[in-house]
Amino acid sequence: MDLWKKFRNWFTWVSRPLPEIVRDFYQEITVRGRKFVLRPATRDDIAEMILVERLAYAGDEPWAEEIFYDLLSQPHNSLFILLREPETNSLAGYVIASFRPGIKDVHISNITVAPDWQKRGLGTFLLSYVMTVAHQIKFRRVSLEVRVSNQGAVSLYKRLGFEIVRTRTQYYEDNGEDAYDMAQMLGDSNEDVNSELSFKNDRS
Ligand SMILES: CC(C)(COP(=O)(O)OP(=O)(O)OC[C@H]1O[C@@H](n2cnc3c(N)ncnc32)[C@H](O)[C@@H]1OP(=O)(O)O)[C@@H](O)C(=O)NCCC(=O)NCCS
């Protein structure tokens, strides 16, 4: 990256950090008839996120603990969105999104639903929420990487409007597997964006 580009990215972060309204959210939501609490993660959530990550990625190398702490310490450009089941307070799933204002792209760094909660629409909800936030703050694109073997996730992303942009060969260090770069453009009239979802704080 050349110096000018680095400076422009830095200036964009400093002049336009992720708005407070996007970072400070709390909602009670219903997905397929079940109630969940949607809220940002704190450092106290990380141990449980790692536990859920290990269960969900059985066989694949999960993220190192430092990556969670590192991203959580960047609230100006990273958003940790948790779904907890209110009766047991157990962590049902989460998504971590990184905002790149220079190119108006929201990158989904991690999306995980606990095995017991999979196939109940939570992955779809979390992705739709990120797409809605991106759309509402006028970002143009949502992107992610996925293992080529993760066909369940790839078909979910396609169903939500993501397309394969390119294949990165031998992207994953654990087994040398290829990754798909997937992305979708959020136009003004994007019909995949659920207009009923929005960032808000029901406690304030
Ligand atoms: C990928 C992942 C996040 C999806 O979350 P999820 O909550 O299971 O997703 P959803 O329930 O919204 O939808 C998943 C699929 O199950 C299907 N499904 C949803 N409800 C269902 C039901 N009641 N019965 C059967 N199938 C159902 C959906 O149609 C979808 O199928 P598709 O493959 O045709 O798109 C989750 O499986 C996960 O955490 N996997 C392990 C980690 C991982 O691979 N993360 C992604 C890395 S890029």
UniProtKB/TrEMBL annotation:
Keyword Iron-sulfur listed: no
Pfam families: Acetyltransf_1
UniProt entry keywords in alphabetical sequence: Acyltransferase, Cytoplasm, Transferase
Coiled coil: none
InterPro entries: AcTrfase_RimI/Ard1, Acyl_CoA_acyltransferase, GNAT_dom, YpeA/RimI_acetyltransf
Highest taxon of source: Bacteria
Domain N-acetyltransferase: 36-187
Keyword Acyltransferase attributed: yes
GO MF annotations in UniProt: N-acetyltransferase activity
Family stated for the protein in its record: Belongs to the acetyltransferase family. RimI subfamily.
Protein name per its UniProtKB record: Ribosomal-protein-alanine acetyltransferase
Organism: Weissella oryzae (strain DSM 25784 / JCM 18191 / LMG 30913 / SG25)
Lineage, broadest ranks: Bacteria, Bacillati, Bacillota, Bacilli, Lactobacillales
